[in-house]
Amino acid sequence: MSIVLGSNRYGKAENRIVRIYRDTPRHEIHDVSVSTALHGDFAAAHLVGDQLHVLPTNTQKQTAYSFAKEKGLLSIESYGIDLATHFVDHIEPVAGARIEIEEFAWERVVVDGAEHNHTWMRRGQKTRTAAISVEGTGPAQQVWVVGGLKDQVILKSTGSEFAGFMQDPYTLLQPTNDRVMATSLTAGWRFMTTDVDWEAIYAGIKQILMTQFALVHSLALQQTLYRMGEAVLEAYPLIAEIRLSAPNKHHFLYDLSPFNVANNDEVYHAADRPYGLIQATITHDDASDAGPAWDSYAGLV
Amino acid sequence: MSIVLGSNRYGKAENRIVRIYRDTPRHEIHDVSVSTALHGDFAAAHLVGDQLHVLPTNTQKQTAYSFAKEKGLLSIESYGIDLATHFVDHIEPVAGARIEIEEFAWERVVVDGAEHNHTWMRRGQKTRTAAISVEGTGPAQQVWVVGGLKDQVILKSTGSEFAGFMQDPYTLLQPTNDRVMATSLTAGWRFMTTDVDWEAIYAGIKQILMTQFALVHSLALQQTLYRMGEAVLEAYPLIAEIRLSAPNKHHFLYDLSPFNVANNDEVYHAADRPYGLIQATITHDDASDAGPAWDSYAGLV
Amino acid sequence: MSIVLGSNRYGKAENRIVRIYRDTPRHEIHDVSVSTALHGDFAAAHLVGDQLHVLPTNTQKQTAYSFAKEKGLLSIESYGIDLATHFVDHIEPVAGARIEIEEFAWERVVVDGAEHNHTWMRRGQKTRTAAISVEGTGPAQQVWVVGGLKDQVILKSTGSEFAGFMQDPYTLLQPTNDRVMATSLTAGWRFMTTDVDWEAIYAGIKQILMTQFALVHSLALQQTLYRMGEAVLEAYPLIAEIRLSAPNKHHFLYDLSPFNVANNDEVYHAADRPYGLIQATITHDDASDAGPAWDSYAGLV
Amino acid sequence: MSIVLGSNRYGKAENRIVRIYRDTPRHEIHDVSVSTALHGDFAAAHLVGDQLHVLPTNTQKQTAYSFAKEKGLLSIESYGIDLATHFVDHIEPVAGARIEIEEFAWERVVVDGAEHNHTWMRRGQKTRTAAISVEGTGPAQQVWVVGGLKDQVILKSTGSEFAGFMQDPYTLLQPTNDRVMATSLTAGWRFMTTDVDWEAIYAGIKQILMTQFALVHSLALQQTLYRMGEAVLEAYPLIAEIRLSAPNKHHFLYDLSPFNVANNDEVYHAADRPYGLIQATITHDDASDAGPAWDSYAGLV
To answer: Catalytic center at which residues (chains A, B, C, D) (predicted)?
Structure first.
């Protein structure tokens, strides 16, 4: 029995890059946090501290900023593919690269009824995400792209039940046929191809998720999530699978009866912790292998 | 020289109340964090641990939840006045009360082009705020109301300079005639009256702040803030004063010249810390006394 | 009625300075976050965007870093006085300066029973704080120093009651004669002089606060806080006043009776929100005027 | 090609349980955040909203609190095993369970030189962690235990180099032979057995990690991490593997030369983002299969 180095990777996390397009008076803004991770022939750095094969994380950072201009930063999926393939193709010891990106949304300030050319408000805590993994070079090169969103807080004030559940000696919960259901949705969808209109599909998936959350009469958060994912896969056959993680942000009906005040599902306490947490994958049954697609690095996705 | 009890107050902070209006199929939601603070004749609790005059913080909580139904929770300023005056008017030892409220904004999910009746997305990290202070009872009772917003992140990608500044031996900064200017605005405006259309004025002030931020060609963040505040006071004579606190969220132009890549104000690094921090009050010269209006309790406002 | 500029200040917030003393093999570390704020004759910057009198916040930052070497960074109170008086004495338009400092504690790693010379572990989320305000120049110059600590989480598992409190129609709370009491203490103490052994007095006050929290049989958090503050003022006549802010971090006894499990004050739920919040000042009755001592700028103190 | 439900699980996250042992006047405290996740035959809940097999997350919560008394809460690994096996053994549809636990450390307040019986200060942001996965019932049951710690911030002010690294056109970094090295360590170690003195081994591993960080002359963070992990595996053959994730919290030497101030590795800027991020596994070459051991659920570990 001997001790050996197992899997390892390194990179620069949370590069806060802002890219302004200013070719016309109507500027565009792309505001991202980018993390890069490389793996490959780096054993010497671990075992004996030899950096000869180590591309500094500072270099990875410089590259990420420079590529925002060299390659452009319009769709984060596309930018991530450019960055990942660069490291794999041009840095000899690199066998694979992973790029994780969070994009912060901005909306234009409206002045006198018109969107302003160069002034924005930050839009929500929700972020769009992408994770790109590239392995190998030449014809054997494989690319995995996962698009997504996270921290999309949504709530419905009716149309949600929870009843008929299992009982054991620790079960005190009462069934309900009308409750507030809220979650802070994190979703990732894995593409089968890179020949994608990234902007259109992001907007389309987001709309489907929101629509299904609104329209499905919910018997359980599990059921709602499944329908949301199923609708995405029905609409987009190029999505191999979608993974959803949804905290059940509990809203407890507040008991006002001691004060002789009726509470007809009107006043709730929004609890912080604990929260339910539902995670589910909805997949095409012939989906390609996920490979390293979901191997989270810096927690941005 | 003896040791005495000075100013003191106590209450329940960050009650997370959600109020749903469901009288029609089109529900309304008001999602708030409410803090209550009381001061008055509470020396015995401090000096000898006698609680006879102490209304428990739990009771303050119960009242806050119950008032969301009893009095309604439409405008936070109005709800806060109801709650504060209740404590001052009906709890004997209470000389004054302060209510601080944060309101989290939601926007309706749009399904097939129409706003949904009972499904929302949380809108941004920006929150609306209110702080209500009530002192005294009967004809001598005084009420101060401060409305506001906080964490409104805004950015303009041009139309901002910083030049002609003072030099000393520690001054290394180079002047610039075109920069990205961004801040996370916190603003509070003090009313001279409580006879106010709270919703209309909140929307109006927010629009003025955004419009001025967009339209003013900025020579300094100080100047932009002054114009923003001045425009609010010009539009609303019932505002006694407005206080603005604005971190200068630095966006540094990234040096790509080592890579022979031109960066024509296109690629920036968004820095976390340190940040500039500008604070200013713009006031009517005959504004009434601020009293305890700005005496922050739980940090919600 | 005209619109005028009211009070205003500006500076650089949260400079993250780490100062290593390495004159001997046993290094020392001081790890701080420093905010600087200046006020004075800056109306032109606000009114017309004229920066001629504005010392850039970047310059304030450079000065703060350089002073860590020039003046040293041993006691944060002393460093803060040096920095504040520099701005007031040497920058013409500056009428007053405020420096707020948070210091992060480190403890040495122990190797084979001995403290290591140059390796540390970060010690807790608790931080030591200081706020220095300097107004005016020459003989009329005044200096206020507030030392403090924040986010010191403390808990006692017995020796705390809460009973005999006021009742109103919203009062549901049951009295208790044995509860868990916990808080995250923030304290600030104002000095009457600057001729102080800053390190000794910080250690002394912290010990007194912890000791009193442990030893006082608590009838209310108010009473505990008063005793803590009183003991500090008794021990240190050079302290004019101490201000304490203490969230009551509720620990609710968990009801295990449905499972026929006895819970003799053994299993609690630690709640996040809401929380009680007690604030009190304990003061010498002849304390000097507080002036701007408590006028918080960046929220570090 | 059809759409199917893939892997899924659900549970209650971040139950904030505090367990006091008060059998003698010298109390003991265990303060934890516990997350439970179940997987198994739950397809009906997803596909048709049928809850018949769903043990509510509320029930999981009740069980977690009750087990703090029924089974005790001394070592988090042991408590987690009890809880996981309960769900797998007694809840019919459950095929496997995962328990993730964070434990917050407290240290006794010292009064007059003696540790106090029932008063504590919270100790640091560092937490101890455990993740327990149990799959299957009866003789086929398998149990995986991962112990760990997270957010252990450590720093050394000398004894760290970074030089001799790879160069490419984006490489601007200068080599250094003396730097500040700091990280916020997260580590997890997987046990080959459950017959373990959990307290002793946690203390032992933590000491080894700190000692190696202090003693290894670092040529790269990678090398330091490898030595830390190797030393743990050498000391504890019952550890199958250890995984380390270490952000390189950059401390940049501050340039004081414009002010003619010498900075001999004494004044640094502590940067927030971006940061390097090094992840490595050190393993016994014959380690048993990791199974679901590292399949993080609620992010507590």
So the answer is: 12 (charge relay system), 57 (charge relay system), 250 (charge relay system)
* pLDDT band at residue A88 under the 50/70/90 scheme: very high
Q: Is B259 on the interface with C (CB under 8 A)?
A: no
Question: Which of C169, C272, C273 lies at the smallest CB-CB distance from A259?
Answer: C169
Taken in order B218, B220, B225, B227, the sign of the CA dihedral is: negative
Fold of the D1-138 domain: Urate Oxidase (3.10.270)
**Which residue in A114, A146, A118 sits closest to A132, CA to CA?**
A146
Q: Is the model's pLDDT at A3 over the cut of 80?
A: yes
3-state secondary structure chain C: CCEEEEEEEEEEEEEEEEEEECCCCCCEEEEEEEEEEEEECCHHHHHHCCCCCCCCHHHHHHHHHHHHHHCCCCCHHHHHHHHHHHHHHHCCCEEEEEEEEEEEEEEEEEECCEEEEEEEEEEEEEEEEEEEEEECCHHHCEEEEEEEEEEEEEEECCCECECCCCCCCCCCCCCECCCCEEEEEEEEEEECCCCCCHHHHHHHHHHHHHHHHHHCCECCHHHHHHHHHHHHHHHCCCEEEEEEEEEECCEEECCCHHHCCCCCCCEEEECCCCEEEEEEEEEECCCCCCCCCCCCCCCCC
pLDDT tens column, B3-30: 999 999 999 999 999 999 999 999 999 9
Whether residues A3 and D90 touch (CB distance < 8 A) is answered with no
Helices then strands, counting H and E runs in chain B, come out as: 5, 10
Which residue from A159, A17, A174 is spatially nearest to A83, judged by alpha carbons? A17
**Which residue carries 């950059």 as its tokens?**
D250
**Which residue intervals of chain A bear CATH 3.10.270.10?**
8-138, 141-301
pLDDT tops 80 at residue A125: no
- Active-site residue, B156 included: no
Known binding site: residues of C? Answer: 57, 162, 179, 222, 248
Task: Assess contact for A136 and B137: CB atoms under 8 A.
Answer: no
Per residue in C49-86, pLDDT (tens digit) is: 999 999 999 999 999 999 999 999 999 999 999 999 99
User: What H or E segment, with its residue span, contains residue A212?
Assistant: helix A198-215
Residue A188 Cα distances to A14, A158, A197, angstroms = 19, 27, 17
User: CATH 3.10.270.10 occupies which residues in chain C?
Assistant: 1-140, 150-301
- Any CB–CB contact under 8 A between C272 and chain D? yes
Q: Look up the CATH superfamily of C150-301.
A: Urate Oxidase; (3.10.270.10)
Report the top-level CATH class of A8-138.
alpha beta
Q: Which helix (H) or strand (E) holds A227?
A: helix A221-235
| pLDDT tier at D301, thresholds 50, 70, 90 | confident
CATH of span D141-301: 3.10.270.10
Digit-coded pLDDT (tens) for B149-198: 999 999 999 999 999 999 999 999 999 999 999 999 999 999 999 999 99
CB-nearest to B272 from D258, D259, D273 is D273
Short-list C109, C146, C153, CA closest to C127: C153
Q: Return residue ranges of chain D for CATH 3.10.270.10.
A: 1-138, 141-301
- Integer Cα distance of A214 and A224 in angstroms: 9
Cross-chain Cβ contact A298/D277 below 8 Å: yes
Q: Which residues of B touch A111 (CB under 8 A)?
A: 210-211, 214-215
CATH code of B1-140, in short, is: 3.10.270.10
